[in-house]
Write a structure and sequence with these properties.
heterodimer, A: MetI-like fold, 12 helices, B: mainly alpha, MetI-like fold
């Protein structure tokens, strides 16, 4: 029995652990070391250069563009997505008759809203590059169709519009998922609370701020982490959608794209690894901040 | 408040007032539905148009549906081959992930031994690292193993990156299962592996389905890993092939073929979703709810 136990445990754990160590843990560990070298991919030619790569990051204007763009996305994409998601989810639930029942057709809405979540970001990127196409695209076609020819722009080619256009795509592709997520959280709130709020004469906004939001707060914090990580990435959409890629004048450059280009086009593997480490610390900071705020503000259901 | 007034009436409250109240809500819900669905429908319709129709009026309907666009995208533009590659790689990786991830999660959840927590946390910690950090060394690890641009290489790497979440998710699932059935099976002389495959795995089916759906979509839509590890155009997976196509077809101005390729890439997933939508939404959100 005891013998069989160890043999089973070894058989169950070792294959997964081998894959984990070889393809996940060891690359992560190596990346930290590589970021301190000038390695260009030739075996035995890596020299230790200390923090040189990190110092160079500070003077790389394209990388600084990328940091600025990721920071802007980190600020705006989660905020707008969560606001829209919360609005639509609470409308699905309490926008119906009497203020406590779900809206008619809420099942159908949830099905449709979720569509973009199922698509690869590449599919989303290709689709929206068609939508944004200045001559044959859906967006300009619509604007011209209703007589707003002046608003028809070349969305992805203009330095001031490219980044908002990319952010709109990121928001478009994720709102549906959070509608469903928040919707599940609102489902968990006892109906009596909404009825009580209604009896107390609370309007839609008061109900939302006093009942709905405090009780779905944890889901919102999870959403911030997920969306923050997505906003620090944004690689696939930018690489597929914008010219260069990286957009006009670096307008849509992101850290992932800089890293990819430096590593696999220029062969600056040490330098690219330093970008990876920077991205890692950004992600870590985000996760720690979100975890801290969730610990200090838990609402207990009485 | 109009609302509490109408509530205090004994007789049925007037209907028009209510539909007036819900009208803006319906309008908002409908507006987002249109914003979500319109680009998808537009792409599907455009995949049946001629190049001229696409270039002249983005809002027109095809005068006669051009099935030839789909045939051209499937064979000449290799979407069919990319689709086939995706099926092999994702199918293999999914099987491997569920088997190895399920075994590891079960062993960690139901057996006490030294180092158990350490192993568990090494898996969990990996979920918080951005894949970009691993990208450069991973390329060289795969290259040194001679697996660059092979199905096996992609399958192993896909599985390695899907296993941490699978372990994390199934670990809590296996913990929540009752132990009595397993004990009875041990009494009957069942081996450890027998208990896992014949007793615990069937009991864990809902969890396996949820995480399986989550993994399938994540792997099917993977782009960054194949972009770096799969340079051979004959072995491109669907997302990678579509991205390459959108550059080359753009140069050749075969817009209708590109719309058809895009539609072929997104339609199977959308159809499968409509068929199994409850399961899929539950599976996709399960990770975040935990």
């Amino acid at each position: 029995m005891r013998h069989g136990r160890w043999r089973f445990l070894a058989g169950a754990l070792i294959p997964a652990l081998v894959l984990h160590v070889v393809f996940v843990l060891s690359p992560y560990a190596q990346a930290f070391y590589l970021s301190l070298t000038d390695w260009t991919g030739v075996a035995g030619e890596a020299h230790f250069v200390g923090a040189d790569n990190y110092a160079r990051l500070g003077g790389d204007s394209l990388f600084l563009d990328a940091v600025r763009n990721n920071a802007l996305m980190l600020l705006l994409v989660p905020l707008i997505t969560i606001a829209l998601g919360l609005f639509l989810a609470s409308m699905l639930h309490i926008g119906g008759k009497g203020g406590t029942r779900g809206i008619k057709g809420s099942g159908a809405y949830q099905i449709i809203y979720f569509f973009p979540q199922l698509l690869s970001l590449v599919v989303v990127g290709v689709l929206w590059s068609f939508v944004y196409n200045p001559n044959t695209g859906l967006l300009n076609g619509a604007l011209r169709g209703i007589g707003l020819d002046g608003l028809a722009k070349s969305w992805l080619a203009s330095p001031s519009l490219a980044l908002p256009a990319v952010m709109a795509v990121l928001i478009w592709s994720s709102v549906g998922f959070y509608v469903v997520l928040f919707s599940a959280a609102i489902d968990g709130i006892p109906k009596e609370l909404f009825e009580a709020a209604l009896l107390d004469g609370a309007g839609g906004w008061a109900t939302f701020t006093n009942v709905t939001f405090p009780l779905v707060r944890e889901s919102v914090q999870v959403a911030f982490v997920y969306l923050g990580i997505a906003a620090l990435d944004a690689f696939a959409v930018v690489q597929v959608m914008t010219v260069g890629p990286g957009g006009p004048d670096g307008a849509t450059e992101v850290i992932g794209l800089s890293l990819y280009r430096n590593a696999f086009q220029y062969g600056k593997f040490g330098y690219a690894s330093a970008m990876g480490v920077a991205l890692f610390f950004a992600t870590l900071t985000l996760a720690v901040m979100a975890l801290r705020s969730s610990r200090s503000s838990k609402v207990e259901m009485a | 408040m109009t609302l509490s007034l109408s509530r205090s009436r004994v007789i049925r409250p007037p209907a028009p007032q209510r539909s007036l109240r819900t009208f803006p809500v319906h309008l908002a819900m409908l507006a987002w539905g249109v914003v979500t669905a319109l680009p998808l429908i537009w792409a599907i319709i455009s995949s049946f148009k001629t190049d001229n129709e696409i270039l002249n009026d983005p809002w027109s309907l095809p005068s006669s549906p051009q099935a030839g666009n789909w045939a051209r995208a499937w064979s000449q533009a290799s979407i069919g081959r990319y689709f086939f590659n995706s099926v092999i790689v994702v199918g293999g990786a999914l099987l491997l992930t569920m088997l190895l991830g399920g075994l590891a999660a079960y062993a960690l959840a139901r057996y006490e031994f030294r180092g158990n927590r350490l192993i568990y946390y090494t898996f969990v910690a990996a979920m918080f690292f951005p894949v970009f950090l691993a990208l450069v060394p991973l390329f060289f690890v795969v290259q040194q193993l001679g697996l660059l641009g092979t199905y096996q290489g992609l399958i192993l790497v896909y599985a390695a990156y899907a296993i941490p979440f699978t372990v994390f998710f199934l670990h809590s699932f296996f913990r929540s299962l009752p132990g009595e059935v397993a004990e009875a099976a041990f009494m009957d002389g069942c081996s450890h592996a027998g208990v896992f495959f014949r007793v615990m795995l069937p009991m864990a089916r809902p969890g396996m389905v949820a995480v399986g759906i989550f993994n399938f979509l994540g792997l099917w839509n993977q782009y960054l890993l194949p972009l770096v590890l799969n340079p051979d155009p004959d072995r491109y997976v669907l997302a990678q092939g579509l991205a390459a196509l959108s550059v080359s077809q753009g140069y050749r101005s075969d817009w209708s073929g590109l719309f058809a390729g895009l539609t072929i890439a997104m339609l199977p997933v959308l159809i499968a979703y409509v068929a199994f939508q409850r399961h899929i939404r539950a599976g996709m959100t399960a990770g975040a709810v935990k």
